# Entry
Amino acid sequence: MADDQSLLEVEDLTTTFSTDNGTLTAVDGVDFSVDTGETVCIVGESGSGKTVATESVTKIIKTPPGQIEGTVRYKGRDLLSLPESELRQVRGNEIAHIFQNPQEAMNHCYTVGWQITEALQIHQDVSDDEARAKAVDLLDRVGIANASARFDDYPHEFSGGQKQRVMIAMALVGDPDLLIADEPTTALDVTVQAQILRLLDDLQDEFDMGILFVTHDLGVVAEIADRIVVMYAGKVMERGDVLDIFDHPGHPYTQQLLECLPEFGATGGGIPGTLPDPHDPPDGCRFAPRCEYAEEACRTGEQPAEIEVALDQHVSCVHYGPGGNPSIVRSEGLGPGDESGSVGGDSEVGPADD
Amino acid sequence: MSRRDIEDRDDSRHVDRRQWLSALGLAGAVTLAGCSGNGGDGGDGSDGGDGSDGGESLTLPDFPEFGVDDLYGRDVAHTLAERAFEESEYDYSFDGDTMVNPDGDQVEINIYHSAGQETSQLTADFIAQELGQNLGISVTVEAIDGTRFNNEYWTQPEPEGGTDTVNGEEVTWENPTPQNPGPRSVTSNESWDMSIVFGLNTYPLNPLTNSVFFDGANPFYNPVGYYPQFDAQELFSQARQATSTDELREAFVEIFENLAYEQPYITLLFSDDIVGYNPDLEGPIENFSNGWDLPAWYEGESNVSGSYDTVTSARFTTLNPLFNTENGAGEAIERALDPAYTFDEEQEYFPLLYDMSTEDGEVWTFDIRENLQFSEPYGQVTAEDFIYLVQELHQADWAPTAASSSWDGVTVEQTGEFQFQATLESSNILWPKTYDPTLYPIPKDLVQPYVEEEDVEGLQQDEELLELQFAGNLGPFELTEWNRGSGTEYVRNDEYYLRDIDEGPDLFSEGPLFEEASISVVQEQASRLGALETGEADSAAIPPEQYESYNQNDNVTVRQVPTPYNTILSVNQRANGWNAGPGNLFQLVPFRQALAAAISKQDLIDGVYRGLASPHFTWQPRWSEFYPVSDE
Amino acid sequence: MGFGRYLSARVLWAGVVSLIIVTVTFLMLAAAPNPAVRQAATQAALQGGDPAAAAERARELRGLNEPLHVRYFDFIQSVYTLDWGWSVSRSQPVMEAVTQALYYTAQYSIPWTILTIILGPLVGVYSAANMYSWKDHAATGFAFFGYAIPNFFFGIILLLVFGVWLEWIPITYNTGVPVFSVENAIQLAIPVFVLVTGSIGAVMRVSRNESAEFQNADFMKTAKAKGVSPLRAYAYHVMRPTLVPLSTTLVGQLLALFLGASLLVEVVFAIPGLGRLTYEALIAQDTNLVLGTTLFFTFVAVIGNLIEDLVFTVLDPRISYDDR
# Structure
């Protein structure tokens, strides 16, 4: 991790939405950063604010009703204070997005070629032929067979995995330095998932991009992430190197997430309880209501400050703070997972769509 | 003041002429004496009976001023109604002010008016109110669609015919019609009491037309089951055979006197047509045959300028003069092709193409003007053209021309280049007024090919006929375009023959006094009125309810044109009429008189018709030459 | 199946449909008593002739005693050679009546249709883009006003204001002015306005609802993430998919409006167009003309459906040629 300047540096990012029921805080003072060539995963349950956080980076969420505060520094520029027209030059050109559902994310009325070249031509002054050549090349690159013929096909003529490949091509057409991939594999078949992940991995090297990857699937994380940011209810619970966290999950939430993985002997239950109401989050640690280790101190004040528990591994938990006892949560026993089988939580970690 | 009790006349078959005249004198005296000042109080100064006692009768003056002035009001109506009660075999009576049937219940009957027509509804409401006040009858007012009324109440879809005793004579309905399906027992599908849905044309020019009403077996117009108590057929036959105007008038006056007495329908009023004109237009007169002297009309100065533009609500089906049967299209044709004659504001015959004369009403001589020219190549209009037209088209079986029925049984014969004679089967001194002997000039050479082929479609579709291209100098204007959807356009005919005639207004010598003319088809009334108001149209009909606003409008001059169309209260004298109890009181003359006496015509005219109507006493409007008053 | 084959199949099918309709029409006409024959019989009866003989003669004259199939082929031939007979209520050939009326109808319905097709979706998308703001409410209010107020009534009011009070426009429609002239534009402005306000409402609502769905679609987020400007996003990504369901609504609706709405407007503004022609033909029981206008509208409907199908497949690539 470069100390001087990250590719993307997000500080104190807070995104709220005004709704009829009051203000909804989706992302509440989140920091994270992505370096060139690095893959950072934001993980967490559905509704934990991962997607909003990434979409706040280039302000593609609707404002209003959304409102974004904090700083987003991309190559030293504060994106949030850029005028909309300049921001548009960043979108698709320097920072590209891939979305969860390729079926919906493409406009069914236009050929894939049109949609790919659109992204190129609104940013760069290239002729139709050049644009086409580049798009076909990219389609080929992302593994679409017979790319030049398929350029003129419509999205519905592609399979789900192919669509996501097309989406990736569409994202890469502007040679972005940062790719934000929001659960790009969730909607796909498991075998296809792996292909896409591998493709992304390959492309990352080739294009030398930073990737900000959103997922709730720790299995995916294990495969691609360099670093992890664990989010819960709009707050960061834990961050750090992927191996460190998988080996020594600090936060009770992270622990429970990991327990859900089959490799860790999960029985397919999930974390008991539900996410707090984003209109009226609880005092203290956001996870406290669902945390088996929660104490009185967990339920007062603000979310605890992040404590560096190991090198570059930060945890936001009272038990690691001053006067806390990390051993309460650092037990090796993988906890109460045994009994979770019978609990039908409202929100489960699993192949949920976000 | 001498008055006769009308009871004396109950069994008289008809009022004779002398009675009528004397009665007129009486009515006049009454008016002069100021006794009629209070229209509501009919019994002034007489024996003081108020009618409700049942025993005493009011002494009433005799007919013909029936239903007006001193013959209007509660007391008169009660007196007359009580006479009807006496005539009736059932025990109707007045209980105080209320008319009760033999069961002692108030008489309740209904009246139908045309749905959606404000005037009709107001009239019905007014009648209901008057009958309630003056006769103690409870009247229910109901709206009905005209078509439905006609199909289910007025006519009997399958007329049955039959025989009945009418005035002591056996009458057989040999050719029953839906309108007159047979004797009183043969009725419409639905029962009904009173209706003001339909009015009638009284045919002031040719009252003979009214005879169909009285033919007993063959009439069109007797859907109410009225049996005349005078010898109507005989009087009509007298009129038909009259050889002088005096004889004719004598017969008609007697008919109309009797109708005024018997009130087959309760006659109410003649409404006026309201026509708006461009105020700069000089010429229009308030007259039944409005517009006969159009070639003398002008705008502003009396020289040739401008355009005479009118609007009409209905499209023209055809402008082929041989086949046209529409009023509107007739007007459009006559802008470019004069009919043979017309009637002036005195309803006097005015010769256009030819003059007609007769000695006895049977043999008529037609003298054709000698300055009439068709367009080339057809040359001059001669007697031969007319003879050919009558004999080969109107009287031919294969050609369904509009005038076919007019020439049935008429023998025509050429007596000179510009003269021909027509002999009728029986004399009819009113013949010109039937419009039967009017002919459009049609070139013989134009129709001859079709006649030889007996080609009806060819004749109907002939462009020269449809576009009036043969009209030569025969009309005030030349038709330049007939747009089937939007109307006709004309330019002035510089050769118009009427300029050289001796009769008529001086301005005919320069007529017409417009460069152009047009008739636009505008279906929407509001648009027609808008066109009138903005000067786009020079004349348009105005609905009575807007009379006031247009009368005060400087952009429009409003004229009231009297019409022969009446508003009448039809009372159902058939078996399914009078649903208030046993015995149909409507069949009794005194009862119908009572109804007439119970309704104030003047109040109706003032209140509902905004004064735009004249009272209706008998089957002719006041301005008809057969209206009894003109006989004074 | 390619588009070319699809197109020819559709056109062929349209031809078959029209033939079926024409055939059914013929059969119904053949089964119904001929008014001309009846008229001839009545005429004969009135003049004391033999009604039966006259009817027979009339039948012979019109070829009605030919065998059915001969008459059928004659009928088909005259229908497709546009020889539609004589209109007795207008005294002109039916074809001439239809073309004449079409000439006037086209003058207002073409601008009307174009404006509706352009403005309706525009206002709808604009409304959706500003959903629940005052702009949306204003646009919706405008659309509903035009939709709710009866055309003929609105027409009369406008005629009163602009024709009678202000005298900006003529009251009576002048058929004499050239098609492309200021006078014609002036006299057609109000009818077109009335019709557009009347028809825009439905189009606007459909496109508002459809585009509301599409503007929140994921592909809009994609477009935004690509750096597409909002204007371009609405113009390309919302408008285009909106047109797909709209195209089906539009064609059918405009066809339906064509007769109904335009009849009253033609009556109010005295335009001698197709609506009045059809209506008057029905009222006058002018069999040939009724047949002519019916056939005309049938053909228009068949062609309209054909166009609708084709537009649909062009606009929405997901529609497969094979399925239809």
Chain C has a mean pLDDT of 80. Chain C touches chain B at residues 39, 43-44, 46-47, 49, 86, 88-92, 97, 100-101, 104, 152, 156, 159-160, 163-164, 167, 170-173, 175-176, 267-273, 276-277, 280, 284 (CB under 8 Å). The longest helix of chain C spans residues 230-269.
